[in-house]
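User: Some background: our group keeps a shared notebook of sequences we're curious about, and every so often someone picks one and asks for a predicted structure to add to the entry. Today it's my turn. The entry only has the sequence so far, pasted here. Could you supply the structure so I can complete it?
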Amino acid sequence: MRSVPVAAPLVEHAPLALIGKIGRREEVVAACTGAQALGIHTGMAATHARALVSDLDFRPAEPEADAALLDRLALLAVRRWSPIAAVTPLDGLWIDLAGCDHLHGGEERFCRRLLAFCRRAGFTARVAVADTPGAAHALARFGKGELTRVDPHGTVEAISSLPIAALRLTPTALSAARKFGFERIADLLPVARGPLARRLGLPAITRLDQALGGIAEPITPRDDPEVPAVERRLLEPISTADAIEKVMSDLLGDLAEVLQARGLGARSLRLTGMRVDGTEQVVAIGTSRPTREVSHLLRLLKLRIERIDPGWGLEQFTMVAPHTEPLDAVDLGAVLAGETLVRDPARLVDVIAGRIGMRSVFRIAPVESHVPERAVAHSDPNVLPGDWPAWQRPVRLFARPEPLHRVIALMPDQPPRRFEWRGTVYKVVAGDGPERVHGEWWRRDKEIWAVRDYYRVEDDAGGRYWVFRRGDGFEDDTGDLSWWMHGVFG
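Assistant: Of course. Here's the predicted structure to add to the notebook entry:
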């Protein structure tokens, strides 16, 4: 996915317009919303604008400063959001979200955070996400809202209603399009490519095909001099898994030397293979701890070889470490003294995460809370959790309690004698409790009087369960006296 934010300074004072020299005359190159409301628009002659609004705040445009700011934003995007980000002259950024949107909570959440970031920085922004850079570029500048997300394979429908200026055509091509009655992209789609190229020129057809995905438009990312990177150009294209593995090993060896010289370890790696047809194949891995061990990183990268489609062959490879951390020497004094060290699970975690995903590998850590479902949390699998409280808790605790039906129990302190759960009737032969848990009143007002009475019960088949009743049995404000299943022992 490609996201194209278009930034412009927010205005908190008098209407403002920027004047730049275009050819031999001065024109308005940018105008704030207040100036536009007064009739000032881009391309208007400066003398005409001054005559129209005499007290308008006119300032000279600084294209070099604007380009420098966009370059800094692109570098920030490379370091914080995606390894592939570039400037789209003259007023935007391309950000490739493919393979990294999940790191930011998904496309929707990332775009919302990006808009909030621009507002905090003092810019307005419009963001679009589409299958192709050209479509995202068009929707960000000519779409209806500040955030536009196009479903996969919905590019044609999304851009059909846009004006043909959204295709980044030259002024000559735009003039020719108006001459032949082409106003929107939908007008170009049914026309054969040959006659259309004769009328608008071949570059216009290229732009159209790039927006529709017929022609690849790779993004050349902003280089970050601080990001360790190595490159290999091959004499002959390769396409076999063994040859790709050999290139991976060579690149890792070169990258390990760069990392060692800087005292760094890699937390993530991105391998880009350039095919002979000009398209790219990108795979990435992550590690739970910084490392520059070639054998371990190669093992993780080998899990990604099957995702690489070599096509007619790969002729160039680039490997970068976008996320690094300091990596100092390891203290082996205890090992030399004969002491036994606790095994580091980082390698095992990396291998498992490479197969099933990093989010699927975690430890359960205790949290200071009396409410059972809040008393545990997922934590780093490499970090040992703290001490667990002495409370007796079930081995399997449900994320959400499940209701019980047809419960028979003596009020107010006796455990249930019979209940129905998931369509099955359970007869209780033994029970222990209650263990009273109060709500956390500092979280919200509804928990001020909330009470749960928990019981450990055993049925006639030997099953042991953890159930609770809402309410203390005396005050109506403490709960509705409904029964719930919250966990299973053993």
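Suggested note for the entry: Confidence is low (pLDDT under 50) at residues 6-11. The first strand starts at residue 2 and ends at 3.
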